Automatic annotation (TrEMBL):
Boundaries of every NAD-dependent epimerase/dehydratase domain copy: 19-289
UniProt name for this protein: UDP-glucuronate decarboxylase
Catalytic reaction list: UDP-alpha-D-glucuronate + H(+) = UDP-alpha-D-xylose + CO2; UDP-alpha-D-glucuronate + H(+) = UDP-alpha-D-apiose + CO2
Key words of the record: Cell wall biogenesis/degradation, Cytoplasm, Lyase, NAD
EC number: 4.1.1.35
Enzyme class: lyase
Length: 388
């Protein structure tokens, strides 16, 4: 634990606080818990249905953070302890969600309930009890770029005004209702609007975070090892799984979509700044991403293949990628965001935050983690005879 007094961005000492973190057992939650426990004096009430990813923070009496983290196994859909825990805390951070694209078109009801209905009591309890809320939304609320509707050869496609995503100016553009992919984005948009309205009408102190493809260790699961064999995680885990098994990486609809990837450890720095600078973060919606790390999904596959070969010492496959249609990969109702570059003006101005890690470096450390964590387990799984 840090013993020196921490100062906020305006030079004032930061008082230790109690944070109710919902979804603390997930990918982002696990990194946020680690950061808070190792660098601050804040206490965490960690709520989740699972705790595998934070078990290392909960076990062992000798841990230097002692009793500053308390795990509560709670499903926020139906648990009367939720309001009491929010009341005990100074700040609530809500990370709980279904947030894997493979679920959006195949489990649209669960997706909408999880991202909208289940978040409602959290907003209500914060508002009624005058507690601050940091709510995790998504860059997906922007949907498609304006530029994606222009003719393929239009020079306007090169103009940033047609693709840079700005919190206070860009529209939210989703596909038609039968494209159920957008169930997630739409539910997230509505909860953002509700939180914003609670701020405007009832004085709720809130911050909304829009993550742009945060990636790193502990993201999702490797199918058949620490998650279901038939499960489809987000792209980092899908590609890691293929590399570990020495199978070609599947490029959905040719891998032409573009993404910007930010290293989880850079992004967590931004969240800590929001936690500790309420005067600068309240009432704001923040893009959190790395505009310099843009690639097509195809380029990501090529880079991950190269980095993994270096990390594992194994030569890449002769045919490292294969194309697959979105219908075959995700099923009916899938659609995609074409391009996601965050405008950084607001987060720069309010918090002075900038990402540091290049795509190559973040893939290097993440794939080293994946190799060390999963390579042996995958060999064992693959050696088992399959039932005929
Ligand atoms: P994650 O799936 O790893 O974590 C979510 C956690 O919430 C899980 O541990 C899950 O068990 C928990 N949870 C879900 N429903 C719950 C319930 N009813 N009760 C209690 N716990 C519940 O996902 P993540 O990547 O850590 O994402 C966290 C948040 O950030 C989500 O709201 C997601 O929509 C948002 N987000 C993340 C990214 C990213 O790049 N990782 C991008 C956009 C948005
Ligand atoms: N994708 C892919 N192959 C995979 C998994 C994902 O080509 O094995 C693509 C997917 O269609 C999307 C991008 O990779 O264009 C990023 O997918 P992810 O699941 O990480 O979530 P998203 O960024 O769309 O929210």
């Amino acid at each position: 634990m840090a013993t020196e007094v921490r100062l906020d961005l305006d030079g004032r000492p930061i008082k230790p606080m109690t944070i109710c973190m919902i979804g603390a057992g997930g990918f982002i939650g696990s990194h946020l818990c680690e950061k808070i426990l190792s660098e601050t004096a804040h206490k965490i009430l960690a709520l989740d249905v699972y705790n595998d990813k934070i078990r290392h923070l909960l076990e062992g009496e000798s841990l230097s953070w002692g009793d500053r983290i308390q795990f509560h196994r709670i499903n926020i859909k139906h648990d009367s302890r939720l309001e009491g825990l929010i009341k005990m805390a100074d700040l609530t951070i809500n990370l709980a969600a279904i947030c894997t694209p493979a679920d959006y078109n195949t489990r649209p009801l669960d997706t909408i309930y999880s991202n909208f209905i289940d978040a409602l009591p959290v907003v209500k309890y914060c508002s009624e009890n005058n507690k601050r809320l940091i709510h995790f939304s998504t860059c997906e609320v922007y949907g498609k770029t304006i530029g994606s509707f222009l003719p393929k050869d239009s020079p306007l496609r090169q103009d940033p005004a047609y693709y840079i995503l700005k919190e206070d100016a860009s529209p939210c553009i989703f596909g038609s209702i039968e494209k159920q992919r957008w169930s997630y984005a739409c539910a997230k948009q509505l909860i953002e609007r509700l939180i914003y309205a609670e701020g405007a009408e009832n004085g709720l102190e809130f911050t909304i975070v829009r993550p742009f493809n945060w990636i790193g260790p502990r993201m999702d699961f490797i199918p058949g090892v620490d998650g279901p064999s038939e499960g489809v995680p987000r792209v980092l885990a899908c590609f890691s799984n293929a590399l570990l098994r020495r199978e070609p990486l599947k490029l959905v609809d040719g891998g032409q979509s573009q993404r910007t990837f930010v290293y989880i450890k850079d992004a967590i720095e931004a969240v800590l700044l929001m936690i500790e600078n309420p005067g600068r973060a309240n009432g704001q919606i923040f893009n959190v991403g790395n505009p310099h790390n843009e690639v097509t999904v195809r380029q990501l596959a090529e880079m991950m293949t190269e980095v993994y070969s270096k990390v594992s010492g194994e030569a890449p496959l002769e045919v490292p990628t294969i194309d697959i249609s979105s219908k075959e990969f995700y099923g009916e109702g899938y659609d995609d965001s074409d391009k996601r570059i965050p405008d950084m003006t607001i987060i720069n101005r309010q918090l002075g935050w900038n990402p540091k890690t290049s795509l190559w470096d973040l893939l290097d450390s993440t794939l080293t983690y994946q190799h060390n964590t999963y390579a042996e387990a995958i060999k064992k799984v693959m050696a088992k005879p399959t039932a005929s």
